[in-house]
Amino acid sequence: MAEHLIEPTQLENDVMDALSEVLDPELGIDMVNLGLIYGVKVTDGACLITMTLTTMGCPIGDILHDAITQAAEAVAGISSCEINLVWEPVWDISRMSRYAKVALGIHE
């Protein structure tokens, strides 16, 4: 049976747009283009962001957590933000956008 993908709501798209402004301070590329944001779900103003980091024990994890929370909560209609940090599926460079790969000099 085929999976049915649910289209993101406008509010969820607005959160993703806000997250595209959150830069990884080490790489200078935003979280969305790096492929670190796996999903955004908004229910009654409460935002749940499922994401990962490039490596377990990432030293800037706390900085990114705070920046992501602030960006999401700055979106009109978002009253709170929770981050679900996951390690599966494992992040790798295939999750990066073409923009991020070009900016980092990665040629596949």
TrEMBL record:
Q: Which domain of life is it from?
A: Bacteria
Keyword rRNA-binding part of the UniProt annotation? no
| Keywords noted in UniProt | Methyltransferase, Transferase
Named from the GO MF annotations, one term is:
methyltransferase activity
InterPro entries in the record: Fe-S_Maturation_MIP18, FSCA_dom_sf, MIP18-like
Under the heading Gene3D superfamilies, the entry gives: Fe-S cluster assembly (FSCA)
Q: Provide an example Pfam family for this protein.
A: FeS_assembly_P
Q: Fetch the SUPFAM superfamilies from UniProt.
A: Fe-S cluster assembly (FSCA) domain-like
User: Phosphoprotein as a keyword?
Assistant: no
Q: Name the PANTHER family for this protein.
A: FE-S PROTEIN MATURATION AUXILIARY FACTOR YITW
Instruction: Identify this protein by name.
Output: DNA methyltransferase
